[in-house]
Amino acid sequence: MTDSLRIVLNTSVPNEEVQSILSASNMSFVRYKETAEEGDVVIIYLTHESMFPLTLEAGRIFQTRFGALRHSDIIGTRFGSKVLCGGGRGYVYALHPTPELWTLTLPHRTQIVYTTDISMLTLQLDLKPGSVVVESGTGSGSVSHAVIRTIAPTGHLYTFEFHQQRAEKAREEFSDHGLSSLVTVTHRNVCTDGFGLSDVADAVFLDLPSPWEAVASAKLALKKAGGRLCSFSPCVEQIQRTCDKLRSHGFCDITTIECLLRTFDVRSIALPEPDLGRPDTCAQTQQEGGESAENFTFKSAVPPKDMPGHTGFLTFATLYPQMETS
Question: Hey, what long-range contacts does 25-31 have (CB within 8 A, 24 or more apart)?
């Protein structure tokens, strides 16, 4: 039996609700469906560097560099299909949305956390189906979508955003993406007003200008059995103040990580065969009056000449269960 199945069986969420989440026919970021229907969100793939999210509406047309793409040509096709556009002059792929694709194509309301950092925080926070997570701030929803996919179908995300319009837009997107039952969006400044939660969370994620102001409230939100906290900050000065506050509130195992993605190119490289000084080779070379040796080709991973620089630091800390003293 897999861990995810154990969690579903042991969860307090009613089994009927779990089954409804898994078997619903509407499009959702937490489960896959075969066919695109009107109202679904699809990712239009042109190239690796050119992708767009599209909500399907019969009769509408989306302009691409390959020509006009009719929504009706996508409705009814299987996700992943090649769709002709521009009268057959070009084509695109209609992909099923995932949190990773959404991170690359979402409308930016704020600076976002990308998949490299999201994968690390998912690992370090020990997120799994059934986990309860508290997040602030919601921003553009990049981390939120990834967390919800990880903790579904029995977990829950409580996400907080101090900007009212961004909070409303995030709530609308979660509904359109079939995630409403897995997330609660709250408009609140947690640095001044706190989370308003107690003993509910397995993990807390802070993406705030001054995360140290939310540490005390984050501690209250974590379960008494303990939990993990992650803070994303672009500056070292923010990390220093946050770590001091974490220590003063009893957090342990405090570490800071920077994730830098380095992509290698696999290329075919041709080099001349080495002259190892064999007598027959030397004699042949002298007779021909030139360099011998045929080239041989091999595959090699070549590091990039330049790579993306710093995005931010991830600070992790653990809150262990408090031992009661008699």
Answer: 26/178, 27/97, 27/177, 27/178, 28/177, 28/178, 28/179, 29/97, 29/98, 29/99, 29/102, 29/145, 29/148, 29/149, 29/177, 29/178, 29/179, 30/148, 30/149, 30/152, 30/153, 30/178, 30/179, 30/182
User: What mean pLDDT do residues 279-299 have?
Assistant: 62
Residue 40 three-state SS? coil
Q: Angle of helix 142-151 relative to helix 164-176, nearest 10 degrees? A: 40
Which pTM does this prediction carry? 0.83
Entry field: residues in the chain = 326
Q: In whole angstroms, what is the distance from residue 229 CA to residue 310 CA?
A: 22
Q: Find the helix packing angle between 115-124 and 142-151, rounded to 10°.
A: 40
pLDDT in tens, 193-245: 999 999 999 999 999 999 999 999 999 999 999 999 999 999 999 999 999 99
| pLDDT for residue 318 | 98
Task: Give the whole-number percent of the chain exceeding pLDDT 90.
Answer: 73
